[in-house]
Amino acid sequence: MRLLLTPALLVVAVFAAALSALLRYSVLEFVPGSLQTGGLSLGNFTGIMSRQYLGAVWDTVVLSAATTGLTLVASYPVAYVLARTPSPRVRSTLLVLTLAPFFTGAIVRTYAWVLVLGNTVVTWPVPMLFTARGVLVGLVHFSMPTMILLLAAAISHIDPVYERAAASLGASPARVFRRVTLPLSMPGVVSGSVIVFAWTLSAFATPELLGGGRVKMIANVVRDLALDSFNWPGGAAFAVFALAVTLGLLAAVGRLTAGSERSA
Amino acid sequence: MLRLAVLLLVAFMTLPTLVVIAVSFNPTAILSFPPSGLSWRWYVNVITYTQFQRATWNSLVVTLGAVAVAMPAGTAAALALARAPRGASLWATLLLSPLVVPGVAAGLGFLILGAALGLLRSRAVLIAAHVALVLPFVVRSVWVSARNLDPTLERAAASLGATPWRAFQRVTLPLLRPGLLAALLFAVIVSLNEFVVSLFISTRLTEILPVAMFTYVVNYTDPTIAALSTLFIVGTVVAVWLADRFLDLGGVFLHHR
Q1: What is the C-alpha to C-alpha distance for residues B73 and A6, in angstroms, rounded to an integer?
Q2: How many Cβ atoms from other residues are within 10 Å of residue B231's Cβ?
Q3: Domain count, chain A
């Protein structure tokens, strides 16, 4: 057991070393114009709270919340059909179409939206590229495959007998959905929403390309600080902040789903 | 109603991809849709652009290196997890943890670590980071197969006189095949597409394809990236289709009754 785990644990140890280097830099003082660092300081974290950066944090939270809501609404119908269709052909077509963008990579997917939002296909009545609206469209598109898979997994666990029972007792399809299907799929809705929210909080490629420098989310600020200003301590503090929020959210959803499993 | 909604949503998910493919055959550098004719010139551009040649080579080296380390390490760990009577979930959480770390956090962490070790000019840091990022996918895929493995089969082989290595080779390994293939597919695709972490730790000489594509998109507007993206899309769709054909993807993601 130990012997079999050792190589993988060494890999995780390297990863942990990178993260601890990040943590250490986040509490070191930044010396402008140099990669050398000063002494211990919490200045990087109070720096996040300055107006310049709070705007990016606020935009990130608003965009992530909007993305989560829209992704949920857009993914539910697809997930429902994916989980419930009697036709293997429809199921496998939907599955491949859902998984393909999942596997195509951030750059290809985002570039596609650069083309679509940039007035190449249709002329938009309002500017889309390099606006928060455009970033939102890209983020929803990016999050849908994940949400669809999590929702479909939850819906496929619901025994259709419950829905049939409700219908045979006279409930309309809308009522069956509202009172039976939706409540029973809540574990998928909750975990899907939290995962999409957490991932969107640290989105990078979508706001970088579709925001064109005008829309900045937390990850874009980390990049600017670390790679343009060479302020590694400042970038590290921002990255640690994103990491802490992500881990906190995922721990919360872990506790929630564990709780619902215990009560079930 | 439902059918129409699903049709529209699937269109939303797939149309941008189709636009990329259409634009890649655009005859002029100024993008237009629908294109005014057909041309292969952007594909020629992809093949002859030296930075893409270099980045393709880097991608192959980094992905091969990462897979060569992550596959055996992840498979061994998955076997250990499947056999552990208790405490497996704690180890699993630890091994899967790189999945939940935001890309910029991991990227900047590896940049600081690589700079401290003076390794940023080589591909070593890139490979190390990719190993950590694909390991969770390997562990998960093999673990699914290993959990369904009947331990009595290995014992039967041993009782018939097979050495532990021979029993592993002739009994365990063939039974793990679907999990191993899925792991390999995931590892290769994740590594080939990795972008954020790689952006932080590559130089112009070591950068992998997604990073080179990003730099190109930021600096130029011609359809070269559309052509390269089309090649990526075709490769991915074929890979996913083959996977669905031979690996029962539905079985991995959905619950069958």
Answers
A1: 8
A2: 14
A3: 1
Render pLDDT for A132-153 as a digit per residue (tens, 0 to 9): 999 999 999 999 999 999 999 9
Q: Is A48 inside a domain boundary?
A: no
What's the confidence (pLDDT) of residue A101? 75
Query: Angle at which helices A186-201 and A51-84 pack, to 10 degrees?
Result: 140
Residues B128-146: pLDDT tens digits? Answer: 999 999 999 999 889 888 8
Chain B environment of A218 (Cβ under 8 Å): 104
Record: contact B196-A205, CB cut-off 8 A: yes
> Residue A128 falls within a domain, yes or no?
yes
* Minimal CA separation from B252 to chain A, in Å: 10
Q: How far, in Å, CA of A182 to CA of A192, rounded?
A: 14
CB contact under 8 A, A116 and B19: yes
Query: Which H helix or E strand runs over A29?
Result: strand A28-30
Number of H helices, E strands in chain A: 13, 2
Rounded mean pLDDT, A107-117: 91
Instruction: Indicate the pLDDT class of residue B239, thresholds 50, 70 and 90.
Output: confident
A8 in a structural domain: no
Alpha-carbon gap, residue A104 to B120, rounded angstroms: 27
Tally Cβ neighbours within 10 Å of residue B148: 11
Which CATH number goes with the domain that contains A159? Answer: 1.10.3720.10
CA atoms in the 13 A half-sphere facing the CB of B197? 30
Tell me which residue of A217, A211, A219, A207 sits closest to A243, measured CA to CA.
Answer: A219
A145: in domain: yes
CB B145 within 8 A of CB B179: yes
ipTM reported for the complex, 2 dp? 0.88
Residues 75-94 of B with CB under 8 A from A: 76-77, 79-80, 83-84, 91, 94
- Looking at residue A258, what is its pLDDT? 64
Do B201 and B125 meet the contact criterion of CB atoms below 8 Å apart?
Answer: yes
Q: List the beta strands (DSSP E) in chain B.
A: none
Say whether pTM exceeds 0.80. Answer: yes
- Residue A135, domain extent: 56-263
Summarised one tens digit per residue, pLDDT across range A86-99 is 898 999 889 888 88
The larger pLDDT score, comparing residue B186 to residue B73, is at B73
